[in-house]
Amino acid sequence: MTGERAAGRIRLTVEEARALAMDALGALAARIPGERGTQTRQRRRTEGVEIERKIYDALGRLSEGNLNHGGRGGPSGALQTRRENL
Questions:
Q1: How far apart are CA 23 and CA 80, in angstroms?
Q2: 18-42, pLDDT tens digit by residue?
Q3: How many structural domains does the chain have?
Q4: What are the tens digits of pLDDT across the range 69-84?
Q5: C-beta of residue 39 within 8 angstroms of C-beta of residue 28
Q6: Are the CB atoms for 62 and 54 separated by under 8 Å?
Q7: Would you say the pTM of this structure is higher than 0.85?
Q8: Co-location of 43 and 1 in the same domain
Q9: Do both 37 and 63 map to the same domain?
């Protein structure tokens, strides 16, 4: 079987499995593994990702070279804490 023909057969098999699952479960839709994640990634690429304003502001400060991100203790305190936990 050629690659193109095999790909066509796989697509047909996925569609058959989807139809069988929908019939058996009485569902309106059935997803194959990985399909939801793919759709979510595409939606986030198109629409963007919502983040809190304080995170946006901290990222802006970091992009300007200001290492004080606004958290407790500043950057040196955060590094000391991490070193102490090792």
A1: 59
A2: 787 777 777 677 777 788 899 999 9
A3: 2
A4: 676 655 554 444 444 5
A5: no
A6: no
A7: no
A8: yes
A9: no
